[in-house]
Design brief:
Belongs to the UDP-glucose/GDP-mannose dehydrogenase family. It catalyses: UDP-alpha-D-glucose + 2 NAD(+) + H2O = UDP-alpha-D-glucuronate + 2 NADH + 3 H(+). With 435 residues, this protein is an alpha/beta fold. The protein is 45% helix and 14% strand. The strands form three sheets. A six-stranded parallel β-sheet has the order 3-2-1-4-5-6, with helices on both faces. A six-stranded parallel β-sheet has the order 11-10-9-12-13-14. Helix 13 crosses helix 14. Bound molecules: uridine-5'-diphosphate-xylopyranose (UDX).
Length: 435
């Protein structure tokens, strides 16, 4: 198959590289000259474990190329994926589709022969219909099928998620498009990953409903964590106990500082708005969003409480800034709100993150950055674990204790058993359990 990926951001690049790895002939296109130049020079602009190697191998094998212009590769393509950004529109929370429609028009202009155009970007229900209308009315001579094929990639695990998916959702009822999509995913099909075909609108909604459900699970367990603290119960054991019920499942039940990232906050908000517009409000998701917003601020207050109710002039060392480990992504990271609350309270904030400091510098206010956990913990009045990077899982507490001003550890990800930290003389605060 000859495949073009329009948009070489996170989703486009991972999907394009993995499809080339399946043996397809892939061109990743992007309007950003800087990005394409970097990619052509062998530099991968995002941090994703395994991605650089796949890109290198497939470029070497001649199956993966990059381009600033889409016309030539699209004219030769069997399938064109739209993987451009759909940011939240300023003011109303709806997804901004201007990049999607602009890409669709440019693609239609260029296609020749039967071509399948696939939305990979997360788009509101009905976007596929609108793209089809644009094609029909503005490009009547073109033979194009419009398909929805949402991605379910997790940052930090995107390559595995792409190659070993729980399912592949494909929204189309067009027989020729079904055949082409089967061919695109044939290597996975042999891997027994289920291809789930449905109508285009259903497919578009599956993506939002899946993310909303997962976000709801997280907000649920976060509220249970608060209740555990009041009742003297242990949220990790509650999560395990309910998760053993297969109807509930044990995934996405880790209590913490709230969800962040490029998907959950944006997609839950967009779904809530769509549901309201259609007079069918999703009250559970409205509440999920509100719980998460409050959660992040509450975690700032939790740190202040752990410091005796006042952080003015105190040094707080923040371990982990990205919204989760194994990514350099700072979008909607809980650390932003936690740090703001601490700065508002007059704290002196020092921070360290293995990959996120470059992005953080542009987003956070008066934060001092350090080279490792021990450097920033020197003379600190508290160490706060905000993101559960592996390198924070085996901290040398003896060493920390010697250099800190006050022995306080706030573990917002519950990565330590209380006893392991408190045996070194620390006051240890976690989420939803004693300690
Ligand atoms: C998510 C979806 O998982 C993926 O299918 C979709 O395509 C994009 O959005 P991602 O944003 O990369 O992926 O991260 P994910 O691992 O899902 O975590 C999202 C947020 O939830 C993170 O901030 C994480 O720390 C938080 N989280 C996750 C919890 O707080 N508790 C959990 O149990 C799980």
């Amino acid at each position: 198959m000859r495949i073009v990926m329009v948009g070489s951001g996170y989703v486009g690049l991972v999907s394009g590289a993995c499809m080339a790895d399946f043996g397809h002939d892939v061109t990743c296109v992007d309007k950003s000259e800087e990005k394409i130049n970097a990619l052509e020079a062998g530099k991968v602009p995002i941090f994703e474990p395994g991605l650089e190697a796949i890109i290198r191998q497939n470029r070497g094998a001649g199956r993966l190329g990059f381009s600033k212009e889409l016309a030539a590769p699209v004219a030769a393509a069997d399938v064109v994926f739209i993987a451009v950004g759909t940011p939240s529109r300023r003011g109303d929370g709806h997804a901004d589709l201007s990049y999607v429609y602009a890409a669709a028009r440019e693609i239609a202009e260029a296609v020749s022969g039967f071509t399948v155009v696939v939305t990979k970007s997360t788009v509101p229900v009905g976007t596929g219909d609108e793209i089809e209308r644009i094609f029909r009315e503005e490009f009547p001579g073109k033979d194009i099928a419009v398909v929805s094929n949402p991605e379910f990639l997790r940052e930090g695990a995107a390559i595995t998620d792409f190659k070993r998916p729980d399912r592949i959702v494909i929204g189309t009822e067009e027989p020729r498009a079904i055949e082409v999509m089967r061919e695109v995913y044939r290597p996975l099909y042999l891997n027994e990953a289920p291809l789930y075909f449905c109508e285009r609108r259903t497919s578009e909604l599956i993506k939002y409903a899946a993310n909303a459900f997962l976000a709801m699970k997280i907000s649920f367990i976060n509220e249970i964590a608060d209740l555990c603290e009041q009742l003297g119960a242990d949220v990790q054991k509650v999560a395990k106990g309910i998760g053993m019920d297969k109807r509930i499942g044990d995934k996405f039940l880790h209590a913490g500082p709230g969800y962040g990232g490029s998907c959950f906050p944006k997609d839950t908000l967009a779904l809530v708005k769509t549901a309201q517009d259609f007079g069918s409000p999703l009250r559970l998701i409205e509440t999920t969003v509100a719980i998460n917003d409050n959660r992040k601020r509450a975690m700032g207050r939790k740190v202040i409480a752990a410091c005796g109710g006042n952080v003015r002039g105190k040094k707080v060392a923040i371990l982990g800034l990205t919204f989760k480990p194994n990514t350099d992504d700072m979008r909607d990271a809980p650390s932003i709100t936690v740090i703001q609350a601490l700065l508002d309270g007059g704290a002196i904030v020092h921070a360290y993150d293995p990959e996120g400091m470059e992005a953080a510098r542009e987003m956070l206010g008066a934060v001092v950055y350090g080279g490792d956990p021990y450097e920033i913990a020197e003379n600190a009045d508290a160490v706060v674990i905000v993101t559960e990077w592996d390198e924070f899982r085996a901290l040398d507490f003896k060493r920390l204790k010697l250099s800190m001003n006050e022995p306080v550890v706030v573990d917002l990800r519950n990565i330590y058993p209380a006893s392991e930290v408190s045996k070194h003389g620390f006051s240890y605060f976690s989420v939803g359990k004693k300690g």
